[in-house]
Design goal:
mainly alpha; 179 residues; Arc Repressor Mutant, subunit A; 65% helix; 11 helices; 3 domains
């Protein structure tokens, strides 16, 4: 298939959105990192470092972005650590010494999502971790602050494309954590 033809197909499938060819960016660093990952056991820290190297090689402009605002980082860290049932923007803003609207603007600029959406993503990550660890869906819904199991399932499907009950069926999926 010619490059122009495959590019045309991709543009058609993507409904006119721009297609970026990353194949030219796969330099020795990316290939070497991938080969190293395949050739030896990896711990989480090595995998994280390798992933960062690959992403930096593929997207060099993204690697040069400015550091995240310390106040935004503090809010994101607090939300990830405490996982509250609901966000409290006025309190978060007071804790940061910012107005509520300024914090909302800084947070959205730095993370690409609102504080509320970020907290929901944190809850979904926690739900997925708990699910893989063997917790029941009812326990997960309660622990992550969802009003009921149906709300957790709908939100889980929105984020991951599958319902938790689908993942729980061993006929459909075999979950493996770690090696």
């Amino acid at each position: 298939m010619t490059n122009a033809f495959s590019h045309h197909l991709l543009k058609h499938v993507l409904k006119g959105r721009q297609v970026v060819d990353l194949s030219g960016l796969a330099d020795d660093l990316v290939i070497g990192t991938a080969e190293a990952a395949l050739g030896q056991p990896q711990d989480c820290e090595r995998m994280r470092a390798g992933s960062e190297q690959i992403l930096s090689a593929l997207f060099p402009l993204a690697a040069r972005t400015h550091a995240i605002d310390a106040r935004v980082d503090a809010v994101a860290s607090w939300l990830s650590t405490h996982v509250p049932v609901r966000t409290n923007p006025p309190q978060l803003a007071r804790d940061c010494g910012l107005s509520e609207s300024r914090l909302a603007h800084l947070f959205a600029s730095a993370t690409g999502s609102s504080i509320r959406e970020y907290l929901l993503w944190v809850k979904m990550r926690k739900a997925a971790e708990r699910f893989c660890a063997g917790s029941t869906l009812t326990e997960i819904a309660h622990d992550t602050g969802f009003s009921d199991l149906a709300h957790l399932s709908r939100t889980f499907k929105r984020y991951f494309g599958l319902t938790p009950s689908f993942l729980a069926n061993p006929a459909h999926v075999r979950l493996q954590i770690g090696n």
